[in-house]
Amino acid sequence: MDPMGIEKSAFRIMVVDDSEIVREYLIKILDQAGYTDITQAETGAKALELLEQDEYHLLLLDIQMPEVDGIETLRRGKQKYPNTQFIIMTAHGSLDTAMEAIDQGAFNYITKPFDDVDFVLSRIQAALERVAIIHYNIDMINRLQLVVGKLKRTQKEKDAHKRQGQTEEVIGRLSEIINELQEFRRKTKGV
């Protein structure tokens, strides 16, 4: 399990690079680290097409590609899928390119060649931790909105019908949801 106690197989990752050798190398690294739901694309256009078809948590995205380059793929992808994380890959190691990518919404960047596999995996893990936190927050907000809605409805009914039993039911359900959230928080190491 990882990041944050979530099975690595739960994360969908796409490797986008026009070099088949780079794609295969990264897939091998990811697979050995326990990430199993990996897709590959050879162009930015193909990556955007795949994003339309399914949810991806992380894209490892090369800067230099034909058709649609990495910065444009990042810009379009982030605009449409703001919760998806992007790590830019560049062989050039240009600070200007990396800063542009981060300005466009990239989580981080890595430089090729990937000499330090542990470093690459640490960047991937950090990006996926952000994904887990985003999804946890979305889930918590949705649950709380349901509870607030039910509390409002119950209050209106109580005012209209003076029924104490419904209020107790809502309080009981709220307690259950709070317990579920606390259990999830415990599983995700208190984040």
Topology:
Elements: E1 12-16, H1 20-32, E2 37-41, H2 44-53, E3 58-62, H3 70-80, E4 85-90, H4 95-103, E5 108-111, H5 117-161, H6 164-187
Helix pairs in contact: 2-3, 5-6
The gist of it:
The protein has 191 residues and is an alpha/beta fold.
- Uncertain regions: pLDDT < 50 for 5+ in a row? none
Globally, the shape reads elongated
Overall number of domains: 2
Chain-averaged pLDDT: 84
Strand order of the largest sheet: 2-1-3-4-5
- Compressed to H and E, one letter per element, the order equals EHEHEHEHEHH
| CATH topological fold name of the largest domain | Rossmann fold
Architecture of the largest domain, according to CATH?
3-Layer(aba) Sandwich
Rg measurement, Å: 21 Å
The major β-sheet equals:
5 strands, parallel
What's the N-to-C terminus distance? 16 Å
Number of strands: 5
Structure characterization notes:
The protein is an alpha/beta fold and 191 residues long. It folds into two domains: 126 residues, Response regulator (Rossmann fold, 3-Layer(aba) Sandwich); 54 residues. The chain contains six helices and five strands, in the order βαβαβαβαβαα. A five-stranded parallel β-sheet has the order 2-1-3-4-5, sandwiched between helices. Strand 3, helix 3 and strand 4 form a beta-alpha-beta unit. Helix 2 runs parallel beside helix 3 and helix 5 runs antiparallel to helix 6. The two termini are 16 Å apart. The mean pLDDT is 84.
Characteristics:
five-stranded parallel beta sheet, 6 helices, 2 domains, alpha/beta, Rossmann fold, 191 residues
